[in-house]
Write a structure and sequence with these properties.
This protein is of the alpha+beta class. The protein has three helices and five strands. The longest helix is centred in the last third of the chain and has 26 residues.
Amino acid sequence: MSLIKVELERQVVDFIRSLAPEPRQAIRRSLEKLEEEAGDVRALEGELEGFYRLRVLRYRIIFFYHVRSKNRVIRCVYAAPRSIVYEVFAQRFRELLKEEHLAFLKRHEADFDERYLWD
């Protein structure tokens, strides 16, 4: 069985470091299991479809799968206590999408010519 590389965003690393030793060790063990696609994992639904969550004690780590150079990678993008993780991550995700949309429009504003607009 080949292992999947697990990558952590800075927020996840900082969150794990902020925890007491016991939960920090539990999360590290769970991330090692995640390399083997093991652990308490569930797919998210709704606006967070395409993301997954790893449950460790009262904490959740949000991640997604992607392929880089023919290798599967798990990218952990957000971690927080269960009580706030989904709401806060969804808000940050919406903000990121809005920023990306505005950046796209700015890069391509010359491509949008009035002759292509419908009355």
